[in-house]
Amino acid sequence: MNLNREDKGRLVADLHQRMRQAKVAILTRFMGLNVEKMTRLRRELHKAAVEYRIVKNTLLRLAIQGTDKELLKQKIEGPIGVAWSDTDPVAPARVLARFAKDYPELQILVASSEGRVWGPAEIQTWVTLPSLEELRAKILGLIQAPAASLVRLLTTPSSRLAQLLKARSQKE
Questions:
Q1: Cα distance between residue 72 and residue 111, in whole Å
Q2: Would you call 139 exposed, middle or buried from its count of C-beta atoms within 10 A (0-12, 13-18, 19+)?
Q3: What average pLDDT score do residues 48-73 get?
Q4: pTM as predicted
């Protein structure tokens, strides 16, 4: 795809804004994936609210300048795809790892989050982390557990008293 200077400028500005907002950016190598597999990968990523683009290295280097993803500059070489998420920092890793398991042509190279670079082994550990929804459910359960116990404690004596009174009235 040939872009003129103005189009490249718009692309870099748009990608720069997205990289600033992204919680994580993961670089991948996709050599050997045909169009069908790439389409499948993009669909899976889209379902998880993850964006994925294949960008020329020079433009990607310009786009990450001045962001916390700038540390990725040294890792950008050869054909690169970049996946990112504005909401869930683990979602891109989870989808990419699951896809790479089925299609080893996809390689997860490196990630950047919060001004730090993460290698492939570290990214794999992200996959085992619970999702944001799972964490919210656990926290909600922890918050609700004491309230439920309190309700049980408060209702138990009154129900026992009612049973005792009923038994007493049946005896008489």
A1: 8
A2: exposed
A3: 92
A4: 0.73
Distances (CA, A) of 24 to 87, 140, 162: 9, 26, 58
Distance CA 62, CA 76 (A): 11
pLDDT digits (tens, 9 = 90+) for 61-120: 999 999 999 989 988 999 999 999 998 888 899 999 999 999 999 999 999 988 889 888
CA atoms within 13 A of residue 36's CA, in its CB half-sphere: 1
pLDDT of residue 35: 93
- Residue 124, Cα to own-chain centre: how many angstroms? 12
Delimit the domains of the chain by residue range: 5-129, 130-172
Q: Which fold has domain 5-129?
A: Alpha-Beta Plaits (3.30.70)
Structure tokens at 27: 């670089």
Structure tokens given for 167: 């038994």
Q: Exposure string (b/e) for 106-125, b if CB count within 10 Å is 16 or more?
A: bebbbbbbeeeebeeeebee
